[in-house]
Amino acid sequence: MRRFFLLLTFILAIGCGTEKVSRNHFPIIKANLYKLQVAVKEKNLAQIDSLLSVKILDKKQSSDSLIKFVYGVDGSFQFRQFGNAEIIHSNNQARIDCYVMDSTGSTERPMVFFLTVEHEMWLFSAFDEKKESDSLRFE
Predict the structure, then answer these.
(1) What is the pTM (predicted TM-score) of this model?
(2) Which of 129, 68, 121 is nearest to 97 (CA)?
(3) Above 50 in pLDDT, residue 112?
C-alpha cells in the first residue's frame, strides 16, 4: 500500500510540472532493459558496454561488475531474466525496479537500475541491490 502511495505521489508530481512527460520513452526504456538482459545472459561485455553511460564509472561500476552482481561472485547463479520490471521515468531520467531471476522465477534478489538520456539515447547510469527502504527516486 505504501508503495502505491509513493508511486501515486510521483505520478502527481510529474503531472504538476510544466513539462509533459513523453509516453514514447517507455517502450525505448523497456527495449533497452531487454537488450541488457540478453547481453548479460550471453555475458557479452561489448554489448553491455554499449548500453552503459560513462557516468556508471563514477560509481565504480562497469559491465564486469554487472556480470558479477547478476551471476554472483562465484558465477554460479543461473540467470534467466530481469523480471517483474516496474519502470518510472521523466523525460531524461528513469528507474527500473526488477528482480534478478533464475528459472524458478524467485523474487529473492531485488535490483534497481537507473538510466539517463545522453546524446538522445537512454543509457544505464547505475545499478544496485534494491532495499525495501528505497523510495521511488531517481539517482
Answers:
(1) 0.81
(2) 129
(3) yes
Report residue 50 as a C-alpha cell: 554499449
CA dist 123 → 51, 85, 89, 109, 115 (Å): 5, 17, 13, 22, 5
Here the cell at position 17 is: 510540472
Buried b (16+ CB within 10 A) or exposed e, 12-46: eeeeeeeeebeeebeebbeebbeebbebbeeeeee
CA–CA separation, 64 vs 49, rounded Å?
9
Residue type, 82: F
97: nearest Cα among 71, 116, 73, 115: 115
Lowest-pLDDT range, 16-30, 75-89, 98-112?
16-30
Q: Name the least confident of 9-13, 62-66, 105-109.
A: 9-13
Cα–Cα distances (Å) from 99 to 14, 24, 92, 106, in that order, read: 26, 24, 23, 8
